[in-house]
Fold this protein.
Amino acid sequence: VSLIDGRAIAAAIGEDVTARAAALRTGAPAVVPTLAVVVPTGDEAALWYVRSIGRAAERTGVECRVLHLPGPSSAELSATLREVSADPSVHGVICQTPLPAGLSLSEAGGDIDPAKDVDGASPVSLGRLAAGLPAFAPATAAAVLEILRREQVPLTGARAVVVGRSIVVGKPAALLLLAENATVTVCHSRTTGLAGICATADVLVAAAGRAGFIGADFVRPGAVVIDVGTNPTPDGGLTGDVDAAAVADRASRLTPVPGGVGPVTTMLLLRHVVTAAESAAQDSR
Ligand SMILES: NC(=O)c1ccc[n+]([C@@H]2O[C@H](COP(=O)([O-])OP(=O)(O)OC[C@H]3O[C@@H](n4cnc5c(N)ncnc54)[C@H](OP(=O)(O)O)[C@@H]3O)[C@@H](O)[C@H]2O)c1
């Protein structure tokens, strides 16, 4: 198997993002591309992810404002997301998951202005994606497609199987693959004969959040396997949904965890912020 270097792909995207952010900052009028991150819990993994977004933002010239709002009510979260969406100095808004018990991203996402919905959380964004209209796809789903494109994996007519149907990963990844003319099957926790279905895939996308459960019998020889899973290990590390050692003799290419989809996701989020800032700058001219 050949491992796909997500960090190298992220660095290449980062060069483009950095150049575009610099052009905005020095343009007339000068615009500082700005991302607002609303963090509604103290979840450790979420805080770690938000810090990594902040570091990548700093490197690329995107301003990142983090709003900690521990344990908000539904009304408080809604008001905050609407307020940051209405702020003309903010170009991108994300609501970091997990949300406090009882709140759902499908509902909260509706409070983000679709023009600033850089992580595709709004039902409007998902609807536009399904309708083939311009929209920001969730960054993780976009990362899956960006990796496949940069690796020049043929998608037209290819059989793609996505394991997972969440609105942040599985469903939008399936829509994006469909838009590239792949023949797409979406699997989930009630799917019967999962391994057999996965074994038909030319492109297998694992996004179930189950450590190492994609074994050799899930992988057709020669398949390209994209591992979206990020499962915490007892030693504080991360492991994917794919048993990398077990599939090594069967997959042709595989994204490692960490160092695969994750870094590309973060950089695409920043690219979306710069794209949103460019549109806003154009509208104001
Ligand atoms: N790398 C990144 O940047 C990034 C970003 C976001 C998420 N992730 C990771 O990606 C994974 C998925 O995230 P998510 O937010 O989509 O998770 P999620 O909301 O928990 O959804 C998981 C999906 O997988 C399905 N599933 C669970 N167990 C399964 C099984 N044994 N067999 C088949 N399907 C199964 C579920 O089916 P049902 O719908 O039937 O319940 C659900 O559709 C997680 O590990 C998450 O940490 C990574």
